[in-house]
Amino acid sequence: MSEPETIEKRRFVWPAEYYSGPSPVAVLPRGVTFGCGAASIAALLLVFAGGAFMASGGMTQLMDLTLGMSMGDVRGMYTKEVTAAQKKELEDAIEQMRAGLRDGKVSVAQLQPVLETMRKGISDRKLTPPEVQALSAAARKTRSGK
Prior knowledge:
- By secondary structure, the protein is mainly α.
- Helix content is 67%, strand content 0%.
- The chain is built from 5 helices and no strands.
- It has helices at 15-20, 30-74, 84-103, 112-122, 129-144.
C-alpha cells in the first residue's frame, strides 16, 4: 500500500502528540501567575481570619455595631406624631438590649424579631408611633428573653 500524499487534519490531538511537541507560548508573563497565587493565598488567609474572628465573639460585636448604626439612621426617620417619651423609650430599650448582647445575656439569634420589626418599620423611610411602639416592645421582649 502506498501512503497518501497529504495526511488528513484531525479535529483532535492525541495526548502523546501534545506532550511530545514543543511547549506552547505563554499567554501571560511569568510574574502574573505568582501574583495570582499570592492574591489567592491572601484571600484564603482573610477568610480564615474572618471566620476565627466571628467564632470568637465577633458576630456579637458586629451586631452591636449594626444596631448602633441603625439607631443613628432611625433617629432621622421619626414622624411628627412620635412623642419625645416614645423616642426615649425606644432608645432605652435598644440600649439595654445592646448591653445584654455585649454581656452575653442576649444571643445573636434572639435579635431576629427586633431586626424584622425594624426592617418593616423603616421600609418606607419613616417611623410612626405604632411602629416605634412595636420596635420598643420587640427590644424589651428580646432583652427579657421571653
